[in-house]
Amino acid sequence: MENKQKIVVTGAAGFIGSNLAERLLGAGYDVVGIDNLAYGRIEQVPAGVDFKKLDIRSKDIYPAFEGAVAVFHLAAKNDLIACQIDPVETMDINVHGTANVFEAAKRAGVKKVIFASSSALEEGEARLKGFYAISKMACERIADGYHAAFGIDYVLPRYFNVYGPRQDYRRLPHPPVMTEFILKAFRDEAPVFYEGYERDGRDFIYVDDINDFHLLCLTTDAVNNRLFRIGTGKSSSIKEIWDTIKSVMGSALEPVVKPGPEGHIPVMTKADVSDAASVGWHAKTSLEDGLRAQIAFLESERAKGNVR
Ligand SMILES: NC(=O)c1ccc[n+]([C@@H]2O[C@H](COP(=O)([O-])OP(=O)(O)OC[C@H]3O[C@@H](n4cnc5c(N)ncnc54)[C@H](O)[C@@H]3O)[C@@H](O)[C@H]2O)c1
Fold first, then answer.
1. What is the number of domains present in the chain?
2. Do residues 266 and 200 touch, judged by C-beta distance below 8 A?
3. Is 270 contained in some domain?
4. CATH number at residue 111
5. What digits encode the pLDDT tens for the residues 170-181?
6. Ligand 1 in reach of 14 Cβ (< 6 A)
7. Ligand 1 pocket mutation pick from 9, 10, 16 by most atoms within 8 angstroms of CB
């Protein structure tokens, strides 16, 4: 009889987690998905996932970890503005929740936990003072603590700006920038660039590339107990994003330039991918191909009447 390896994915109804669950099923793993549906959507949990609607802060998650060989811990409160508004809930979900996930792994004898960390820890002092970054920093320390005390191996991929199908387009007032630009193009509305946009850009990484790294985590121990910056290694400016969307969608709209909201500081982020390269990973998807897939996803959601 076939003995498939079991993997737990927290946040399986979310953007990255649902794509990851699909990849894992395709690669022949059994997947248990945990999500309380606070932000995720049940309809995007892939068929074949053994889905448990549970909160990562609850002890009820423990039985789901029995027999698993690895855990991908992605569930989090991760809207930066919402995290600033409610630091206590941010710490409760992200820090308490992460300790509980490591505890579940420990009790079930799971050997490896891959924790979704963030480039918010790479973007300078101002960002490090934000409660989202503070919570991610604490989670990285928890991973190290569980390794030191109980021998659980961890991997800490700090993702840069992830994009692709199933990125949450319902986030208000502003969805992530690519999604926002595509939705505006649907409505024939000009995108808004903030002053200083020439110096504003991010390292955008396509979701399948992130999941290539995740799959690698299951097949090599070279990643164990290490931190990785997961991006393309290059910054794409806001203008480059819009120009690519414009050309793929055949739009003639020109951006409107306005002063940024208070506290908006243009920054260019770029991952140092040397550690990831040393274990054989690199991003493969071009900005244009990734944006084509994201546009196709939003077009299909629009056809279902889900987006205006
Ligand atoms: N998307 C990015 O650009 C990015 C960048 C860096 C790091 N990350 C991290 O990657 C992970 C996944 O991000 P995403 O973009 O897929 O976000 P997402 O919001 O789409 O997914 C997170 C999921 O976690 C679930 N969740 C939240 N609180 C929960 C709780 N208490 N119990 C159970 N489930 C809960 C939500 O319902 C949601 O489905 C997060 O940890 C995030 O911080 C994302």
1. 1
2. yes
3. no
4. 3.40.50.720
5. 877 678 999 999
6. yes
7. 16
